[in-house]
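Q: What would this complex look like in 3D?
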Amino acid sequence: MNLSGISASPWGEPLLQDIDLNLQRGEIVGIIGPNGAGKSSLLKVMSGEIVPQDGELTLDDTPLDQWPDRERALRLAVLPQQSTLRFPFSVEQVVLLGRMPHATGQQADLQIVEQALAATDALALRQRPYTALSGGEQQRVQLARVLAQAWPAPEEPGSVVLLDEPTAALDLQHQQWVADNLRDLAARGLGLALVMHDLNLLSAVADRILVLNQGCVVTIGKPEAVYTEALFAEVFNARVTVSLHPTRGNPLVLPA
Amino acid sequence: MSTTGAKAYPGGPALLLALLLAIPLVLLVAVASGTVPIALPEVLGSLLRTNTDTQASMIVTQIRLPRALLALLVGAMLGISGAAMQGLFRNPLADPSLVGVSAGASLGASLAIVSGGVALTGFMGLTLTSLGAFLGGLTAVMLVYGLATREGATSVTTMLLAGIAIAAIAGSAGSLLELGTSNENLRRISLWRMGGLDGADYQRVWLAALTAVGLCLALPRKAGALDALLLGESEARHLGVDVQGCKRQLVFWVALGVGVSVALSGTIAFVGLVIPHIVRMLIGPAHRYLLPASALAGALLLLIADTVGRLVLAPAELPVGIVTAALGAPFFLSLLRHRREYGL
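A: Here is my prediction, written as structure tokens for the whole assembly.
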């Protein structure tokens, strides 16, 4: 997916200005920035929900808005920040909805659903009604649904996956579990863009970090290059110490 | 398109089968019972055209059968329309009348009655009252849909609110009409509102059948899209659903189905609200089974209700709308008391 010179002002005020980003399959790009910097707006532009006023947005060299609905769904999967589902579908039914655009047949679909549920450690919830789950469990199921939609398959082009706060409601164990599985899926050919507030989890999982402030790109690069004390002082107005993880080596952000 | 929900609720096919078996049996009983009871062998004989001259055969084929068939068809349209509306509004308590059909139809019917066209026959065996109801319902839906659509996108929330507003306007206009009209017309209007299937004939059955077949072919094709819509509109879009086109088609078919139902049988509340709800509690929310099962269950409920309505005060009749509420509401309430077991 390629964005060049994207500007968007859906409600008059400019939300995004002159954004360039090239998201390749096989990599994870993390998006950070203070509240209201335009992170979710950027994901909405990339998912086609907000139409940019200026610039070019292409998916596999074709403008995003020219993809037919179903073809686009085979190449692009999206997890919004919040999803409300008030009908008592079973967890398996919810995740199966992710297979809707595909024509892989029920056998293959159920296998993929099982793998996607395993990737978010939600296999044990399979037959439970969605409405009876806790917030964190619901988030894992919604994530599994999006992963089932994007699941790598030999004869398919591979998907771009946009995740808005996929781990916000998860406990420590599941944050780690999901992060490891996202890395694994990227290695199998998915391209992922994540908005996340957990800077330390993000630096462990992302190949590149894009920093947004007031709708503009401040910088983009490897976590160790982007995470500097000066950047957090300037963009987040926060005094921090940046250190390295003792075993993994990725940068960690600690309160000063 | 992959299908959903084949495994998790095994009750779907079983419920469909049970309903399919129950309907012909109830139909036989409904046709046999009435002010003049007719024995089942004679009913069968009349239906299979082996004896055609007797008085019993006349009653069965010319009076009771069209009425029973009309009850089945109207019930099916109300049931499936209700299920589709609840999916579209993502609200298990939505009702087909939410988009203003019933209120508009009520006003249209009142206008026709007040203007004195009760006895006139219009089109395809419909009285002027029925035509007025149909046109009134259609106008209301078009207004609601138009108000909620801006730059090619329809807001479901605005549709809900506009539906309430249009229903209020139609209601007050109707009251204004009633203030100025004769006592006789007033009684006609209030009887029409209670809903009734009397006056059923084969012309009406054909009209209902055509519409019902259209509905039952068109709406189940949207089952997957409706499942996805329950997740949210943008989620459905990301799953490859043409959300706007889907909304337009759903509103069109529901308006047609409810409009024709209202024109043929007056406002029969409750079937469209409660049937999909009950079916969902039994077999879960997946529309693949919910839509056909709601159609069949709606058909069955309305046939039973109409038969009960013909029998309790015989030879007088109880309007079917009163019976559906009296039969369905307690059942619904008892289900609500056990809702925890259904994960609601």
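A: To summarize the key features: The CA atoms of residues 79 and 163 of chain A lie 5 Å apart. Chain A touches chain B through 43 residues (CB under 8 Å).
Q: Very helpful, thank you.
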